[in-house]
Amino acid sequence: MSSRFSGALQLTDLDDFITPSQECIKPVKIEKSKSKTGAKIKIGEDGYFDLSSGREQKLQKVEITLADCLACSGCITSAESVLVTKQSQEELLRVLSERKYTDSKGVTRDVSLVVVSISPQPLLSLALRYKLTAQEATRKVSGYFKKLGADLVLDMTLAEDFSLLEAQQEFLERYRNQQNDPSGKFLPMLASSCPGWVCYAEKTHGSFILPYISSTKSPQQIQGSLVKQHLAGRRELQPSALYHVTLMPCYDKKLEASREDFYSEIYNCQDVDCVITAIELEQMLSGEDKSLADIMDGELDWPWDESDVKGVKGHIGSGSGGYSDAVFLHAADQLFGATDPPMEYKNLRNPDFREASLEKDSQEVLKFAIANGFRNIQNLVQKLKRGKSPYHYVEVMACPSGCLNGGAQNRPYQGESTRELVGQLYTMYRELPQNEDENPTVSRLYNEWLSGKHSDKARAMLHTQYHALEKSDVALNIKW
Amino acid sequence: MAKLELLQSINAHKGIVWNVSWHPNGNIFASCGEDKVINLWSKENQGWAVKTMLVDGHQRTIREVAWSPCGNFLASASFDGTTAIWDKKSGQFECNATLEGHENEVKSVAWSPSGQLLATCGRDKSVWVWEVAGDDEYVCEAVLNAHNQDVKKVVWHPSLEVLASASYDNTVKIYKEDQLDSDWNCVATLESHETTVWSLTFDKTGERLATCSADNTVKIWKEYKPNNELGVSVSKESSWKCICTLSGYHTRTIYDIAWCHHSGLIATASGDDIIRIFKEAEDSDQDAPTFDLICKKYDAHSQDVNCVKWNPTANNELVSCSDDGQIKIWKFLDE
């Protein structure tokens, strides 16, 4: 089976001769009692047995968790098999029927509330596949998850708004810091919402590139904080009693959800427990021999306050969430007093590398770019390494055409091109309703939940950090 | 009787000599090896001698060198994960660009026939296409993850922008650019070898491809377009079909293969230290060709023969290199 991760992730340290699962270099600690001579091990049908003590003692199977894989500089593909067991449709169905789940530390917990959060891109992918409007698809997907046992189904507009606002704010800070300290590594600011890109940067370019990556969390992880940290409190529940599922456009999001950075030591839980993608939802439906159109409608929920602004929304700009446009327009206004300047992207060598700039007094004062796909990530990284990057901000996504073409979006039918499919999805994305002004719930939550913008709590809930992974020179890693 | 006459034997590098590449004018060739050195050889009065040594370009073994079609650039692929581009704009050869991006060992590098594109491949299972963007700038055009194991070799079609790669996953893949979204795709997978495919070579038309493998066979493949006379079913725009397998000739892994674009002869380099020359039979059927082994040079080298290359100027000269540290220049004589 070919890997389902984005190209960026497929390209990490792999082997000529051994398949990834056999080459795991994660050292395993074996508890050993002193023995006279070598161990004697018997292979039984139900496991391995140590016979050295005179009686059969069952040996523990070594379990490599996804967190182990992510913290290791070795292969990435073995993470895939680990993922399959933790974040699969089967696992989701099991948790929903048993109302119990086993967390990333191996502890089994009761579930008192199942929350499903829906992002726009997979919803559009499903709408297109089943020939529904975005609004119809929203109701069908809500109905489907509720039928399976979800208690709340939420859109992620709130988290997307938080992510854009924090990115806008972060950009202003970085811009000013760069003005004060031109030798600092503040700009270009690189978008951080794509976990394929972040994981590749951590494993391959480490401390060189990480300072440029925006510390703002992705919408998925902000939604995770909202659900586990805020909603659990409102409902007077232990966060670990909430099981949080997200519907996402790519498999790489499963890796993101599993990061240690998104595990709360205080509450003993991940912010997102299970990521399901458009392809998997389609498989679940076809497993039941059903079309999404046959599913009974359900409603989205809005558990945040009394206002009712629920709904899957679009944002101006790219179909990946519109980071470049949002940050550009805010910066143009705040830094140069330019309100609603034209944002005209021009393609560079291919349509997946585009740039736009703001001119003031015929001087180029801001230069932004959108770089999608692994080849353009390469070209961007090389520009940075040679000191030839002219950019203040780059929206970076690992998939060609960005998140609408995420690795786990429904694939084109035979004879249909990816380009046409993404074009249709983009049109649908543009037709989604948008929030006119700042979402009032966002302002309320900044005050009531986060004790204001720029507070320590806002920083803790809405920002994260990255970790360079040193390549290890373990003997097993040497290749000929 | 056909024979390979040894013109010259050179102690060329310290340790393994991995690869040699003829300059398009046929008067110079480059060699590289384990010693991280690139040697440029030219013909003096009495024979081939080192003219230039390029050192300090790479930190690990240099696995392959390739002259650009114009002869002004030399590319070198190294186990240090980089590909260096050398030129002598300044009067002497210098490395003026480095292609970075592969996770680890780069195994092969090749220039497209126009010289506008470069392909590289390596242990990270990927094949990369780079475009020459001028001023020592090279832009990544595509990263192709079609193989699921180490990719050993990349070669370009002799006249079109069609790329082929050979891999440890036992397959050969063919790639083309989709003009509409300017992205590269794998358009064909050639499956028949039982183990690693080490190298491959197009004939002068580009319609046929010869591959060599650790399964000790050479296979000849032909491209069939839709509605071909033979009635071979074609998916997408074309299909590649194995039309001939040369088995029983080699006793060990075949590391390299070279199809002469002038004589039509096929030379192979093998782990059994032998260089073999195959010739297509006069009455060979285009859809089921016959190749005869017409020359077998025993002990061509004292260890594995890693590479064979025909001189591009049709003089029947062949250059080979080996684990034994030597380069040998041969003349093929068909008497």
TrEMBL record, chain A:
Any idea which UniProt keywords this protein has?
4Fe-4S, Iron, Iron-sulfur, Metal-binding
Residue ranges occupied by any Iron hydrogenase small subunit domain in the UniProt entry? 415-470
Report any Pfam family annotated for this entry: Fe_hyd_lg_C
Q: Which GO terms describe its molecular function?
A: 4 iron, 4 sulfur cluster binding
Question: Is Iron among the key words of this record?
Answer: yes
Function summary: Component of the cytosolic iron-sulfur (Fe/S) protein assembly machinery. Required for maturation of extramitochondrial Fe/S proteins.
Q: Which PANTHER family match?
A: NITRATE, FORMATE, IRON DEHYDROGENASE
What's the protein called, per UniProt? Iron hydrogenase small subunit domain-containing protein
Q: Which organism is it from?
A: Pieris brassicae (White butterfly)
UniProtKB/TrEMBL annotation, chain B:
Q: Could you provide one GO biological process annotation from this protein's UniProt record? A: iron-sulfur cluster assembly
Q: Which UniProt keywords apply?
A: Repeat, WD repeat
User: Cross-referenced InterPro entries, in alphabetical order?
Assistant: CIAO1/Cia1 (IPR028608), WD40/YVTN_repeat-like_dom_sf (IPR015943), WD40_PAC1 (IPR020472), WD40_repeat_CS (IPR019775), WD40_repeat_dom_sf (IPR036322), WD40_rpt (IPR001680)
Under PROSITE patterns, the record lists:
PROKAR_LIPOPROTEIN (PS51257), WD_REPEATS_1 (PS00678), WD_REPEATS_2 (PS50082), WD_REPEATS_REGION (PS50294)
Entries under Gene3D superfamilies matching the protein: YVTN repeat-like/Quinoprotein amine dehydrogenase
Please explain the role this protein plays, according to its UniProt record: Essential component of the cytosolic iron-sulfur (Fe/S) protein assembly machinery. Required for the maturation of extramitochondrial Fe/S proteins. Key component of the cytosolic iron-sulfur protein assembly (CIA) complex, a multiprotein complex that mediates the incorporation of iron-sulfur cluster into extramitochondrial Fe/S proteins. As a CIA complex component, interacts specifically with CIAO2A or CIAO2B and MMS19 to assist different branches of iron-sulfur protein assembly, depending of its interactors. The complex CIAO1:CIAO2B:MMS19 binds to and facilitates the assembly of most cytosolic-nuclear Fe/S proteins. CIAO1:CIAO2A specifically matures ACO1 and stabilizes IREB2.
WD repeats span 10-42, 55-96, 99-132, 144-176, 190-222, 298-335
Which family does this protein fall into? Belongs to the WD repeat CIA1 family.
- This chain belongs to the protein called Probable cytosolic iron-sulfur protein assembly protein Ciao1
Q: Name one GO cellular component term.
A: cytosolic [4Fe-4S] assembly targeting complex
Keyword Lipid biosynthesis assigned:
no
Pfam (any one): WD40
The highest taxon in the source lineage is Eukaryota
The record ties this protein, via SUPFAM superfamilies, to: WD40 repeat-like
**Gene for this chain:** Ciao1
